[in-house]
Design the sequence.
């Protein structure tokens, strides 16, 4: 770290400011996320690496200003996250913060960044609050949100024939909102919800709940939960033969890292929605291959989105000719997003980056051609249909 | 110089006199350091340390001086954070009243939890407190006013007594420092009162305290509620400092962390929990930017402390010759 500072300082002293006007002679991106806990696989040091890849594409500098990427582990605690954010902004000249898994931390850091007039680009957190009540002219939300995933999974599955649903819902606000959003789209698309059952988070035995879902005869069992809870349900559902019996599981918030952890044997047949899959087109494959060489794993949608957001941020600085917050934020709102993550992304007035999302079905073990070959694409949902309109988001910036 | 309690009185008195002088000097120095600290160290970090220091000290009041191991203190700490945050943000209360509400709320929870838990001893007591605090956790997870996993965010710090703007970092720091010192003073006064003596008697031998005619359950409940209220003071203060209240503070891991802090610093010492909490929090924050998983390092520190410093850092120091010369009193 020290030598990095020294290099940066020396570089700052040696060069005279040229075309680009940087506020402190360098561009510093902070990646703040969970690097040791439950979300470390989907974000973690992989996101840090992805941001570094974006910086390298610019040759490590814009004009004469070197680009530096630093990371920290917020351990899923808002206290730690906000303390790091403050210190980064106040004493370490960090210009922007990325990733921000865990919604409580994302919201806390968003509030501090607003106060300090800094740009945040959330790729790990999923709460729609970030582009709703907590929206900010300097706040951006990439990758996904809980509304888009629920709506896309619900709508696209009904079209694909899954017109009767039963929900296994985590018994708190997050679970209810997933269930409610999905229910609305399912019913809107002409499907039926046959019932639901609520379970306490952190439960370990789901047999009673799964049996109710099985007895309902619904074609789709929606899993309105996240993380360990959903993983355990999928494993136990496989044991109860729910998928084998003709019912389908639909994870409302699952990522490729979960599927990788579960293995195809347990996860086969599962439906889920993501905004990125490495094996989707040439650009996504090229990025994923480079990423895998560096980290040993394929990127999750959060990691790919961190790359995309970092690249877009740097492009905005290039276009604005400065790293001054107002100017960069204005460029970010204007410029279309075209990269390995999104083909036709655009940023709404509330800071939401809208790009297509995809409904996938997890392959059977015999269909998979190798490690990380997990998904069959079922449907592409245009970003405009998946994400909430800026007018409906409750963001005060949109009139 | 002889060790232990069998020292001849003639020899012991001058040593203790000298110790007292040094102790006053050290206290003055510590106070001066705390006043000067925000000009050298990052103030918000210092305030976090003070809040957790007070929390650990409040917990130690129960574990160290009454011998009750509560595994549910997160409920008071995090509960008060929610109450204070809600009062300050939604109802627009000034900070001093919001904080007071946090303390009262925590004390209320303490009365309920204490009244149930003190009927049992040892591991059963710990398990009952854990169970009740988990109930509280699930209530917080579901109640709309806590906003579930998003937490209560952007809590205004407001103006103290309508005059002092707490958004100024230094004003906030000195307010936190004042509350922290007040909390410690209360604990110190409490421990060194006849009430505190009876608590120590209960800790040493409950049966004897009963046979001497003390209403042991009432004393235990008193200590429990006192500890809960002070933990609430720390939690409410933290909500104002960091401007949010989240589920982290009511989760069982927080109850475990405060035990860790107290053990590392030294059970039954005044300064131990404060030092312990500073170490744990500093590790969590400083190591956040390292490549090594923080949780593993905290675990290693805990193991080293348990293996090498059974009495905790301050406890060992107080037992050593240096500690005596400094006027530290051994735990008890």
Sequence:
């Amino acid at each position: 770290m020290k030598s990095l500072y020294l290099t940066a300082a020396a570089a700052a002293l040696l060069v005279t400011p040229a075309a680009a006007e940087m506020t402190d002679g360098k561009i510093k991106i902070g990646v703040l996320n969970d690097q040791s806990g439950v979300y470390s696989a989907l974000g973690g040091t992989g996101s840090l690496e992805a941001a570094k890849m974006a910086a390298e594409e610019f040759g490590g500098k814009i004009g004469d200003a070197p680009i530096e990427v630093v990371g920290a582990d917020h351990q899923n605690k808002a206290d730690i996250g906000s303390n790091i954010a403050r210190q980064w902004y106040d004493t370490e000249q960090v210009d922007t913060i990325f990733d921000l898994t865990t919604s409580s931390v994302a919201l806390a850091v968003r509030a501090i960044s607003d106060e300090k007039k800094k740009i945040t680009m959330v790729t790990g957190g999923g709460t729609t609050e970030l582009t709703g009540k907590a929206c900010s002219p300097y706040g951006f939300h990439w990758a996904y949100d809980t509304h888009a995933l629920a709506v896309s999974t619900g709508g696209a599955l009904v079209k694909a024939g899954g017109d009767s649903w039963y929900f296994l819902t985590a018994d708190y606000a997050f679970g209810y909102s997933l269930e409610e959003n999905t229910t609305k789209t399912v019913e809107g698309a002409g499907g039926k919800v046959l019932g639901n059952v609520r379970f306490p988070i952190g439960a370990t035995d789901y047999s009673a709940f799964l049996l109710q879902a099985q007895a309902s005869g619904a074609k789709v069992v929606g899993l309105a939960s996240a993380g360990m809870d959903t993983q355990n349900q999928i494993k136990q559902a496989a044991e109860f033969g729910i998928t084998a019996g003709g019912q389908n599981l639909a994870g409302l918030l699952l990522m490729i890292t979960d599927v990788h952890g579960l293995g195809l044997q347990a996860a086969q047949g599962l439906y889920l929605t993501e905004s990125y899959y490495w094996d989707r087109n040439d650009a996504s494959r090229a990025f994923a291959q480079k990423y895998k060489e560096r980290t040993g794993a394929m990127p999750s949608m959060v990691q790919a989105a961190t790359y995309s957001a970092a690249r877009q941020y740097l492009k905005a600085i290039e276009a604005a000719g400065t790293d001054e917050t107002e100017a960069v934020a204005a460029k970010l709102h204007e410029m279309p997003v075209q990269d390995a993550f999104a083909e036709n992304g655009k940023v709404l007035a509330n800071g939401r980056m809208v790009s297509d999302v995809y409904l996938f079905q997890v392959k059977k073990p015999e269909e998979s051609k190798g490690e990380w070959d997990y998904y069959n694409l079922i449907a592409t949902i245009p970003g405009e249909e998946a994400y909430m309109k800026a007018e409906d988001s409750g963001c005060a910036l949109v009139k | 110089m002889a060790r232990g309690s069998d020292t001849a009185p003639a020899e012991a008195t001058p040593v203790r006199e000298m110790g007292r002088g040094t102790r006053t000097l050290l206290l003055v120095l510590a106070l001066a350091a705390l006043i000067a600290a925000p000009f050298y160290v990052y103030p918000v970090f210092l305030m976090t340390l003070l809040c957790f220091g007070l929390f650990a000290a409040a917990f130690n009041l129960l574990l160290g001086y009454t011998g009750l191991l509560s595994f549910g203190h997160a409920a008071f700490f995090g509960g008060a954070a929610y109450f204070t945050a809600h009062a300050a943000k939604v109802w627009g209360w000034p900070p001093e009243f919001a904080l007071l509400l946090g303390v009262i709320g925590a004390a209320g929870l303490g009365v309920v939890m204490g009244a149930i838990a003190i009927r049992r001893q040892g591991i059963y007591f710990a398990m009952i407190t854990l169970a009740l605090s988990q109930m509280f956790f699930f209530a917080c997870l579901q109640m709309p006013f806590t906003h579930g996993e998003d937490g209560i965010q952007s809590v205004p710090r407001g103006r103290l007594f309508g005059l002092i703007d707490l958004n100024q970092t230094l004003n906030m720091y000195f307010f936190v420092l004042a509350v922290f010192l007040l909390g410690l003073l209360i604990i110190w006064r409490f421990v060194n009162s006849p009430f505190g003596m009876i608590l120590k008697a209960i800790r040493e031998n409950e049966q004897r305290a009963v046979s001497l005619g003390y209403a042991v359950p009432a004393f235990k409940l008193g200590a429990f509620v006192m500890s809960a209220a002070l933990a609430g003071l720390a939690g409410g203060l933290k909500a104002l400092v960091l401007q949010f209240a989240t589920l982290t503070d009511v989760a069982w891991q927080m109850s475990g962390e405060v035990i860790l802090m107290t053990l590392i610093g030294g059970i039954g010492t005044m300064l131990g929990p404060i030092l312990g909490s500073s170490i744990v929090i500093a590790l969590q924050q400083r190591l956040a930017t390292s490549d090594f998983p923080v949780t593993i390092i905290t675990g290693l520190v805990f193991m080293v402390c348990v293996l090498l410093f059974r009495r905790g850092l301050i406890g060992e120091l107080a037992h050593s010759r240096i500690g005596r010369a400094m006027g530290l009193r051994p735990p008890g």
